[in-house]
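Extended Data, panel c. Modelled sequence:
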Amino acid sequence: MNTDTERLKLILSTANEGYWDWNLATDKLYLSPRFLEFTGYSSDTAEVDSAFMQMIIHPDDHHKFFFPAQNFFQDKQKTSIITCRMISKSGTIRWIESRSNIVEHDKEGNVVRMVGTVVDITDRKQAEDELHKLNRALLAISNCNQALLHADNEMDLLRNICRIVVEAGGYRMAWVGYAEDDKEKSVRPVAQAGFEDGYLETLMISWADVERGRGPTGRAIRTGKPCSTKNMFVDPEFSPWRLEAIKRGYSSALSLPLKADDKVFGALSIYSPLLEAFHAEENKLLTALADNLAYGIMMLRNRKARELAEDELRQSEARYRSLFQNKQTVMLIIDPMDGRIVDANPAAEKFYGWDQAELCQMKISQINMLTGQEVLSEMELARHEKRNFFTFRHCRADGSVRDVEVFSAPIIIAGRSLLYSIINDITERERAKERKEQLELHLRKSQRIETIGTLAGGIAHDLNNILTPILGYAELGMLELTEQESLHEYFSEISQAVMRAQSLVSQILLFSRAQESTPTIVSVQAVLAEALKLLRPSIPVTITIEQHIDKSCRNILADSSQIHQVIVNLCTNAFQAMEEFGGLLTIELKEINPSADLKAQYLDLQAETYLQLSISDTGTGMDEATMERIFEPFFTTKSVNKGTGLGLSVVHGIITNLKGKISVEAQPGKGSTFLVYFPVVNDQIVKKTIKKTPGKGHGHILLVDDDPALLRVMTKMIVKIGFTVQALKFPFQAVELFKQNPEKFDLLITDLIMPEMTGIELAEELQKTKARIPVILMTGYGKDFDPAMLRNCYGIRQFLNKPVKLKDVAVAINELLPSNQVAPNSVS
């Protein structure tokens, strides 16, 4: 043990990690030299108490560091991984990541000792923050470019750009000011977004070289270059505005000149709540954004000038009348004051199904699917030329509804100010666009999940290969000892730890549908009752649970633990959305026969009958953008340390693997509803009986695996249960040896994935020599094969998932060599 301890210390030192040991009974903590180096304290303080930890852990992070510890005390969890800030002796704030484990209980089962490791992740956090800021700046540029493409009004564009900069960029406030050519050379604010609270009214900024012109905005306009204030609290040139800025939570600012033909006509100013918020790469991106904005402003002004010039062409009523009557495009003349249709051309009669006289007795709101007030508001935009292009849904005389694109602009006819509207039917285009977007979205999601699943599978294969020798030697060690010996307990703890690790690997594989599970007949009603019983103590009393469970619902074919996970995950998300204000959690289970509309909406629903599980909350809800990504791996709307982003993707993987469907319906501020569809089965739940098979095994087994460590432990396990083993690392050696004496071997146990030849190919090759040799296939990654497809092919009869347990090896051999049975209980 001393050697192991020294080895552990060397490993931790090499890994640049510190560690701690906390005796809860005495409230004494031992801190390693590396840990103390992080804190800046001397080795004299190596043994401290919890008060010392409260002093060095940032007060805002006490809930992260100490509340998980309270969960340890209550034995709610075995392992804790947290990220928090630490205050060194010099006052410097560092980010650390701490991993903790329970290592000792007293006779009453209370936790009395914990240990953990600590690593300094400050540099990583800073890099992540920088990358996050750049990504937000890139998002702001992308959204602003989209706004520029669709802009048709200068003031609307400016307000929209400011809004995007604040929302996408994560800034406190943004505003645009134009340089005036008055005596004071003042800067006039024309648009803003974010938390402004009257700040712009107090500015009185000049772009002259005077006291109120030396802030970032005045200098940017005067010099034509980006200018910033890194720290408003101490920058002397920002003194005229410091007090009002601090009141509103501003700490730093960046002003970017707006130029046309090398002449500066204004500035875009961005305010951040952080000190020194704007760095070089971010400044470059925001400068490009300002240049694009200036270009867009000039384009809109040029367009406005062209429109004024073209207005003369629209004054000829006679010429227009001829065009109106003979044009094949649908056209309407509308009075914008009340929405009444003044005239309709023959193409409109044909399209809508009403004749000209009938149309002239109607208002446009009788055709448009918007409300009357909404229609009037849109016409007001067209009448003032704030907007000309619209997309609506129009109904026709036969009751059908069509998607239409409308160009509407003012016209003077017989002295009346009216609107002329040109209507294009875009129904089929919109349907095609929707279908294309749905297919593209589905493809992107599938590709993302497949990519992550492949990566997770590769890691799982390697991890399970590593875990197999650890578990095997631990089980072999326990067989050599009595339960009273202390080493037996140590081996037992190692075995349990390995199985917990294997369980974690299985959970990661679930969202990619790479994990093999054993489906059984499951009563969802029973799993619901069990899950809710488990969850009820953790749900705040301010949340009411309402259940509508049809107890006559039929069963489903699934892994009950996975169904339990689905229910717990969805219910946990639901009550977390209501933790602050409380609310109603509604759970409903019933059988349904999907309608034609539902099957058209969800092509996956092909069975005749489904169980529909509905889990609803009255919490914060979500917007369309969130719903589109809610099932993506690693996507989360929760704050840091509140969620991994894997929960709903795991749920999606489980449901999809069951040939079911999961969907979400939600609105911001109005709660969310998750609908899960399970195909039903008619089979009843059958209790399994376990056959006990006594005896001692004998026979000769050929073992093939490219991992030497796994070969060694598997050899010892097979010998332990009474068989002789020929262990080989290379499949081609196994083929040659087997061909020399096929009758020597009673059974082949082989790994599935090997460099020279797969386990399936090896089994196929051996069957050419001796067709009846049974084969056991081992794998560390459930997605490598389909057990149902392979069973009984090339002699393959059984499968072993890594890490391999001694008992599983004995049971598998029992079934294939019945005359050589080994009692599973003798090796459990």
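Residues 427-479 form the longest helix (53 residues). This feature is highlighted in the accompanying rendering.
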